Amino acid sequence: xxxxxxxxxxxxxxxxxxxxxxxxxxxxxxxxxxxxxxxxxxxxxxxxxxxxxxxxxxxxxxxxxxxxxxxxxxxxxxxxxxxxxxxxxxxxxxxxxxxxxxxxxxxxxxxxxxxxxxxxxxxxxxxxxxxxxxxxxxx
Length: 139
Description:
By secondary structure, the chain is an alpha+beta fold. The chain is built from one helix and ten strands. It has one helix at 3-27, and strands spanning 43-47, 56-59, 64-68, 74-78, 90-92, 95-97, 104-106, 112-114, 123-129, 132-137. The longest helix has 25 residues, at 3-27. The N and C termini lie far apart (71 Å).
């Protein structure tokens, strides 16, 4: 075998070995342009009675989660994960779970409870107008 074909073979093998690693780096978290964003304007979510005291409700069409304390106070947060901007879509009690990398958030406070996310969820303003919950970005 000549030195030229050995070098060529080595180059090909090195390229084959590195290609999957390079692909993972490019696709692991996706590009920012294909990730959803949070609310940009007020949105009506549903009837005030949909969120019971001590519970929470997910509004996936708007990427919003609303919780209500035992005393009746409402809190709303964007469900866009602060780690990779994926929409978190599973609610277990008052724990919001992101399907992309397993981050978890407390929807009563917005705090990240499980990494890889460490930043809290984006807080939204929330009010009740004529019996309907309305969420909006914080000013």
